[in-house]
Amino acid sequence: MSRASKYLKIFAYTYLIFLYAPALLLPIFSFNSSQIISFPLTGFTTYWFERLLYQETLHEAFKNSMIVAISSSILATTLGVLASRSSTRYNFTGKQISLTFILAPLVLPEIIVGVSLLTVLIQLGLSLNLWSVVLGHTLLIMPFSILIMNSAFNNLDISLEEASMDLGENQIGTFFRIILPLVFPGIMASLLIGFTLSLDEFIIAFFLTGTETTLPVYIWSLFRFPKELPTTMALGTLLLIVSLILLSLSEYFRRRSALSKDSILN
Amino acid sequence: MKFTFNNDTKKGWRLLSAPFIYSLLLLAAPLSLMFLLSFWTQDYLVLDKTFTLNNYIEAFTQPVYQLLFSRSLTISLTVTLFTVLLAYPMAYFISFYGGERKALWLFLITIPFWTSYLLRMFLWKVILGYNGVFNSFFIWLQVIEEPMTFILYNTNAVIIALTHGWAPFAILPIFVSLEKIDRSLLEASKDLGDGPIQQFFRVILPLSAPGVVGAALIIFIPTVGDYITPKLVGGTEGLMIANMIQVQFSKANNAPLAAALSVSSLMIVAFISIVFVLINRKYLRRY
Lengths: 266, 287
Known about the structure:
Largest sheet of chain A: none
Number of strands of chain A: 0
CATH topology of chain A: MetI-like fold
Oligomer: heterodimer
Helix content of chain B: over 70%
Number of domains of chain A: 1
């Protein structure tokens, strides 16, 4: 390796440490016995995790988050499958512009989406509840779902579809018996990513929940109490673990969907 | 594209209609209503629907909003610059020296960002605080004697936290554009007498420019409207336009002004992004 590449390597590792530093604090301080988050560490405890067992508002928020995350990931994946199937299989007028529009929430500042949704709900005189959060989250997750499904559908061999039609299966039958099973890993990946995104989403939930809070909104309210900091760290550690598991699973499914084309041919 | 209402068009739209209508109802309609609302006025809870430009006049002439707009833009442009400058060598390293471990490196980079955005920004508050991790760590090591105060509750803190928070959004697109570079072009430039530095500036950088432009936009557009970071680590000195929008919308009961501020920030962001893309296009045409 040349000298320049050696410096580059040192830089890469240093940068990686910078990227990891904050997340590593979560497990460290959630097991630290001091109420103050600072060095030196004072001792090991599982007290902060135990405390989580007795927070009833937390359990309520957890239940709400589950309802929102499950509903919005299913809704977004359903819409995403439709949009992605349409865009990968057919060429038609207005396709590009309407897809760009559907994907817009990927780059729009969330506060704009939140404020505008809230404006509509208030103007229509609708009450804010978990379902308004589900609608907002679906809008945000759908673009991710479309991107994941695009790669799943692009791996699909069109001749399999034609074979099924030649053998007398109709369109609906082909869809359920051929296409759906082949893109199933993609669907799982989309559901898992959508679930994780919804579980972690704060702004939309903050704007659109009425009295029923979701997990991030509950965490936000904890920030005001310095003595709850270690408990918040413990909760954060648990959330990190859940996210890691869900996203590893989704990565597994995504790889399978990328492989599916080859695995059929071999 | 030729306008034909053929079989494909019908089948395509039949599938696309549901997601498209969903976006119309939950994105286009709300944004349009917000646009309308920005031309109305609100007196406590009563909405006056006569057309007026007063909200925009207020948004662009009141010093407090001017300050928030310019601060939000400064912060977000600084963050964009720093993030891209840090991300480029990382992406370059992975693409050119990653070898067999490219996928592993990309995986390692994304893991820390699987924690929720809210928690990551909160962690920066814990790190940078007066009695925080950073200060207590260096006092413990006896590197410093007094806690450093210039790192929390100001724009610096917002910039540090955002530069960290958006890193993968810069690394990934730049990496993709570097991967797409045909390696035989590098050999050609070397054979024709380019040294490593000339090669970088004349071949690699121009060819990876689309990735850099993409990364810059992906970071610049959402960070202008960031609410969480300034609220958690910015103090009063680091508050940004999104915080004001939220205050006007809820506590101040002035939804039309909040709408005008939202529309204005979208317009400003769109304008800067378009100018940025056009300048790049003009510059890159030389290659």
